[in-house]
Design goal:
Length: about 450
């Protein structure tokens, strides 16, 4: 072609959570039975949507209005409902004009980053959720900027690291956080959030907070939504119904904007609305459903049941992984993920798991050439057991480990999965001692 049409940031668009599916599908063709632990879809893992929620949707499907366009920013009555829910918490007060709907948070994230100047960077956590890290890196054309989450402190943000990086890099215009966090399941106490807001205040940057799991914080932990601590700082909270209803197939999410009038923030927010206007609007049906579902008296009990269920599973998972030598596990405090971290120097490029089928073994041996050590383990786990988890280095992270979910509803299968992973870790780590690898390289 006479002109190069590829965007400078195209190589940054990676999504390990889905990319590993291609590897698993290839193994399925070789006869491996796959246990999917890679993606956070409660419905796909067997969780049943309550009938009363289905009945609301069934009724709406019979109404002509749900087949029509809606306002670009979203159904006004739904935005009024959501604004009232925010305002009940106290803190920053919003109106319907501070809410914009998107076709899922993936759509929102893409627009939030793509309509910033390329020179304006947003620093995010490491480990990072791939949608955020890829979108931010792609918009800039450079690697995503990150601050560290500390596994020795329950995956809390290293605020000294965050402030130092902002102080010495004036291209940073915003701070990204995910609360509760994906992939670690960490929940940030209010005092941590207040300190992050203070950093934003002192360096005149804005805040993006992904709160998609905001209503899935286990009862033993306390946090705060961004609206309660943001004060005068410009900010955006990202919310949706895919995880908490759960209704991932709705592709329905929204942003809540705080302090539009500060630091020229309003022009930026207007650009997001204009971008949405080019699409006319977001999907109608789930927007009409939101006030009826979230406002139903049964909804809070529904959330309480789900929080208790995931909390119990997180405790159960810790029993399988916490006593493995060379592994660090923090009990999740919210959402439905757990990160299993390998200590430094535990993994090497010689370790293997036994794979009986010669074709499967050859496929895995070819796949692991030149990959990160944790990805090597994940591939061997997949070939040997069929269990599909996501390597931690796929989350814009130098630490080695993997993420699994707390979603399997079948108790026996869930416990088999965790026991099999735990046994596989022990077998893999002991297959070639790290000291042997070091002695061979001296």
């Amino acid at each position: 072609m006479r002109r190069d049409i590829v965007h400078e940031g195209s190589e940054q668009l990676t999504y390990e959570i889905r990319e590993i599916v291609a590897v698993a599908d290839a193994l399925k063709k070789l006869g491996v039975q796959i246990t999917w632990e890679n993606i956070g879809d409660p419905v796909q893992k067997g969780e049943k949507v309550p009938q009363w929620i289905k009945d609301i949707v069934i009724q709406l499907v019979s109404e002509d209005k749900t087949y029509a366009y809606v306002a670009t920013q979203g159904v006004p009555e739904t935005r009024d409902f959501l604004a009232a829910e925010v305002n009940k918490r106290g803190g920053y007060q919003i109106t319907r004009d501070d809410i914009v709907f998107f076709n899922g948070l993936g759509d929102a994230v893409a627009k939030v980053f793509s309509f910033m100047k390329r020179e304006a960077r947003v620093i995010g956590p490491s480990p990072a959720y791939s949608t955020h890290s890829s979108a931010e890196a792609a918009h800039s054309g450079y690697d995503h900027l990150t601050y560290e989450l500390d596994p020795k402190n329950n995956w809390m943000p290293d605020l000294d690291d965050l402030e130092k990086k902002i102080r010495y890099n004036d291209s940073i215009a915003g701070i990204l956080l995910i609360n509760p966090d994906n992939p670690t399941g960490a929940v940030y106490p209010r005092e941590v959030l207040v300190r992050m807001v203070d950093i934003a205040r002192r360096y005149k940057v804005f805040i993006i907070c992904d709160e998609i799991y905001g209503n899935l914080v286990y009862d033993t932990h306390k946090t705060a939504p961004l609206s309660e601590v943001i004060e005068e700082i410009p900010g955006i909270a990202l919310r949706g119904i895919s995880k908490e209803v759960p209704w991932p197939g709705s592709r329905c999410g929204w942003i809540e904007v705080f302090n539009q009038d500060k630091l020229n923030f309003k022009r930026y927010v207007k650009s997001l609305i204009n971008a949405k206007m080019l699409e006319v609007c977001s999907t109608s049906l789930p927007q009409y459903a939101i006030p009826l579902i979230l406002g139903d008296p049964r909804y809070q009990g529904h959330l309480e049941m789900r929080r208790a269920m995931y909390d119990a599973r997180s405790k159960e998972a810790c029993k399988f992984f916490s006593k493995i030598d060379g592994v660090i596990v923090n009990k999740p405090q919210g959402a439905f993920y757990m990160t299993v971290l390998f200590e430094d120097h535990i993994l090497n490029n010689k370790q293997t798991l036994a794979i009986a089928d010669a074709k499967v073994r050859k496929f895995i041996e070819d796949k692991v050439k030149g990959v990160e050590p944790d990805k090597r383990f994940v591939y061997y786990l997949l070939g040997a057991t069929g269990i599909c988890v996501v390597p931690l280095t796929g989350f814009c992270c130098k630490k080695k480990g993997f993420r699994l979910t707390l979603l399997e509803v079948d108790d026996r299968k869930r416990q088999w999965t965790w026991q099999t992973i735990a046994d596989s870790i022990r077998q893999y780590v002991s297959s070639v001692p790290d000291s042997d690898v070091r002695s061979n390289t001296v």
